[in-house]
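Form 7-S
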Amino acid sequence: MRRTVLLACACLGAAPALGQQYPSKVVKLVAPYSAGAGPAIFMRVMGDRLAKVWGQQVIVDSRPGASGFIAIEAVKNAAPDGHELLVVSNAHVAINPALYKKLPYDPQRDFVPVGMIYHTPFFVTVRSEGPYPTVPALIAAAKANPGRITYGASYVGSPSHLGAADLAYRSGTRMILVPHKDQSQMYISIANGELDWALSTLASALPLMKAGRIKLIAIASAQRSKSAPEVPTVREAGGPDLVVDSWLALLAPRGTPGAVVRKINADVNAELAAPEVLERMNAFGFEPSPGTPEQLAEAIRADAKTYGELVRLTGATAD
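Output:
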């Protein structure tokens, strides 16, 4: 009997110890984004800061393509010890299940939520010297040329894809999706006039905006952004009432100890409150979104319901 009690006590003490010992080696943040995309750039900032806190190197491993499947599969099969984490948006865990008949992963069965990183709105982005200086001009061109106006998205099922499909649906137009594995190339295509427009985050569009080659003509939000207050909402600009945003979060492989998840969550939340991080987020147009793993799980459930309805309304498909 005494031996059983001692074993039970030892097991109870092991869980907190796991959190205290983490990390014991290099931590890899696997991201389904190209290295030049806003999420990957910001996660490198976070990785550098977490490396100082943890005393271990933190690497951002960019694995774009296949609607996030490549990165997701890698972490799905990783050891459940917190040393390989998955960077995801709502597209990967809330949109893909509604868009694809068959997924090579189950967001709830294969992963555990760790914590939210940020929210970010999307902007209607066009070529600076192009033929669509306003949202009404873009919609008018789409109505005059059904199936001729093209819009880009980093992958099928991304918020930018569904958001653009929603704009077409609300404006009674038919526009054509052109998926891009590399986000940077998508913006170059807009700048070169090979692609008409895209919904983009401020962070991802920033390099070519600074170069004067692309511009933001509206924000798909209920209100203007603090980071770009001069840009009107789509509704203010003369378009439909369009709201498109995304969030970024961390997941861990199913089976990762709760103590490890809680430590990562606490350390990430602490860094999201740092003045230097907040300043960088503001420049990117990101809104910090610290919270618990349970709050992230609820956000996934809520978005799955919302985007499932949007997929149904717009007829968007990945097949």
